[in-house]
Amino acid sequence: MKAFVRGWVNYFAASTMAKFVRRTDEWLRRRIRQIYWKQWKKVRTKFAALRKLGADDRVAWEWANTRKSYWHTANSWILSTSLTNDRLRNLGWTCLGDVYK
């Protein structure tokens, strides 16, 4: 994915696309968070993963048991504060904004 992102950004870098890159980057990060949430299929797995990422026991248990959709949960504050942008970078995900700059 890194090669694809770099090539795509370098190809379109001639035009001013800062707003487009920012919006696409936000969408991609939300999609990545959704994939992680969906990957943790069981309540126990979600709870353990949230605890490992530093969430409080009570809050992690509440969100592990949520009935909200994957997409809605991906935009929740719990995943935004647990799976931060820096943490996603450390996991190997490339941000469009970093490549565009």
From TrEMBL:
Pfam hit, one: GIIM
Phylogenetic lineage: Bacteria, Pseudomonadati, Pseudomonadota, Betaproteobacteria, Burkholderiales
Species of provenance: Sutterella wadsworthensis 2_1_59BFAA
Protein name: Group II intron maturase-specific domain-containing protein
Superkingdom of the source species: Bacteria
Occurrences of domain Group II intron maturase-specific (ranges): 2-52
